Amino acid sequence: MSGPQRRQSVSLSTQPLAVSPVLATSPPAFSSFSASYEARQRATGAVPFPQQGKALAPFKEDGDRDEPVRILLLENINVSAVDMLKAQGYHVEEQKKALAEDELIAKLKEGGFSAVGIRSKTKITAKVIQEVPSLLVIGCFCIGTNQVDLLAAARAGIAVFNSPFSNSRSVAELVISEIVALSRQLCDRAREMREGIWNKVSKGCWEVRGKTLGIVGYGHIGSQLSVLAEAMGMSVIYYDVIPIMPLGSAKQVESLDDFLGQADFVSLHVPELPETTNMIRAEQISKMKDGAYLINNARGKVIDIPALIDGLKSGKLAGAAVDVFPSEPAANGPNFGDALNAWSSELRSCPNLILTPHIGGSTEEAQSMIGAEVGSALIRYLNYGSTLGAVNFPEVNLRPIIHDGTVRLCHVHLNQPGVLKVVNSILGEHNVEKQFSDSKGDIAYLLADIANVDEKEIKEIYEAIGGSRANIATRMLF
Ligand SMILES: NC(=O)c1ccc[n+]([C@@H]2O[C@H](COP(=O)([O-])OP(=O)(O)OC[C@H]3O[C@@H](n4cnc5c(N)ncnc54)[C@H](O)[C@@H]3O)[C@@H](O)[C@H]2O)c1
Which positions fall inside the D-isomer specific 2-hydroxyacid dehydrogenase NAD-binding domain (predicted)? Predict the structure, then answer.
């Protein structure tokens, strides 16, 4: 077991905390569009906050009882999260940039932060976790969590949250725009006009109404796309490894080969897995309809790009849109050359091809949704102990506490035989209203609500559980 044991003592909170954080607006409105977005958000009011009931508050063991939870937000986290966290009474400190390991350790230690919010550039290493015992929770305000040592965090009793699906709608809308743009050869015409070339053609340009969209991977994005495509008069078929109930009139097709031969547009929405690597290569392209279109907004390795180039140059494919690549530049700039991917210039020379720099999920709305989702997860964990949506913890939640005099025990512990026997022997004399525990690998997490306890009893429970052999982290909230 690495990392110090974490305990957080109890305090009777007299200050009720806000339970319905308001979704904040996007950054300053520079366009009427973003202004109307903000107005919509204001009109819809608060983000639905699933955890109702009595507001619970954790306090530091040796700190001032009314000292607010301290949260450090790095990398310019969206205002939706900042406002939501501040509305809880937390002390929120913001920095625009990422911090290197040693700077991060110094900053977190100096500020006694319980929570840190990052995006993709800040690395939370095992060293950071070991050196900052005050840390309880990490919020990754992005899709991935590769930048965090998840195992080290779990073993130190630190829950990690992210936002894997907040940008699904943004991706689905981009695909819709690509379907129309490809079938009208829009990008080629727009490029020609910029070069001063008037090329008024209708040959090879089609309406999308009545055409068949084939979706590979009917998950969060694929299913949203299905609904939008049907609204434009398209027929939708989909292929997925699991049977999924269709939305609208979409139809699931059992074999990929059958599927490929039926679709006018094939759009890929599968995760990157060994079995999806080069899932669409020369053999699959040959099975597609002549003059079909191929769209990849999933992951770069799902398509064999040299096979796509052959398909476009031979005329087998009438067009393609690619947002993701096997290797992508680390920074913006003129970095998408042959040094990165050997076929880059050949790809760029293909007709009716839309290339975009992995922007499928990059919208103001997605950033705002990510802020609200991860912000809510931090609040639920800090205030109520809920780990719903955690990536490195078992997901445990309890119904809200309604009445005074009930305390919630949040106990992260080693997943070892006999732990529950110890916990129950400590709680046995009390009225345990509800209790739930689950495990994930080496780590287990227990929530228990204990009714009719006074402050002295709460402290006794806390000390007994926090001092038990398998304890990793213990908090008591009320
Ligand atoms: N371009 C972008 O900016 C962007 C943004 C967000 C997500 N993405 C990517 O989009 C993809 C889909 O995301 P999602 O949120 O819809 O994921 P999801 O997990 O909700 O859905 C994926 C679907 O693919 C299916 N699937 C898995 N393996 C399959 C296989 N071999 N054949 C057929 N179906 C298979 C799954 O059963 C699931 O239904 C992911 O690769 C994700 O990384 C890209």
Answer: 178-360
